[in-house]
Design goal:
Helix content: 40-55%
Distance between the termini: 55 Å
Bound molecules: uracil
Order of helices and strands: HEHHEEEHEHHEEHH
Amino acid sequence: MAQPENDTAARFLPLHTTWPALRRAAAGCTACDLYRNATRAVFGEGSRQARLMLIGEQPGDAEDRVGHPFVGASGMLLDKALREAGIRREEAYVTNVVKHFKWTPRGKRRIHSKPNAREIRACRPWLDAELALVKPEVLVCLGATAAQALLGSAFRVSRERGRFVASPLAPHVLATMHPSSVLRSPDEAARHAAYAQLVADLVPVARVLAPG
Ligand code: URA
């Protein structure tokens, strides 16, 4: 049966928002159709005390298989970029705006497919619960899907990346490109340039997090 158009994860939220209860509830979420073809919901991970929250789009093929966010190729690139900017991934809580992998088949491969507005809206209560629990001081949107979900559909990562923007979500909010778009660069030179830009965008974040 198709999902009701206006269904959201709100009806799955536990009465008492503890981490184990949230994760358990998210695992059973059927607020949009994406659960049907995904292996599992991939919830955010990291310290509840994290000062930094990183938000991507949705789990990819690797994340769907193992159940952790940003562990595939784009996760490895993200870890490297964070390190180079002076940020340890362990300092961050890492999550996605959509918790189920959306894909289309191509031969034996599962090809990432962008979540639509309805799926992003349906999933939002999970992200809001994570934001309410972690209360990050710095929030980084990785890519247009996260940036537009959190900062408005008019937000353009290409124009506004790498600088802090005013938002009620956290004291410091910034968007940068998604690491997977670095990986999709057309050639080696473009990949180098895109990666360097990603690191440069993360440097102001490292400065905010730096002690003293
Ligand atoms: N891309 C994302 O946006 N999130 C992940 O967890 C993995 C890849």
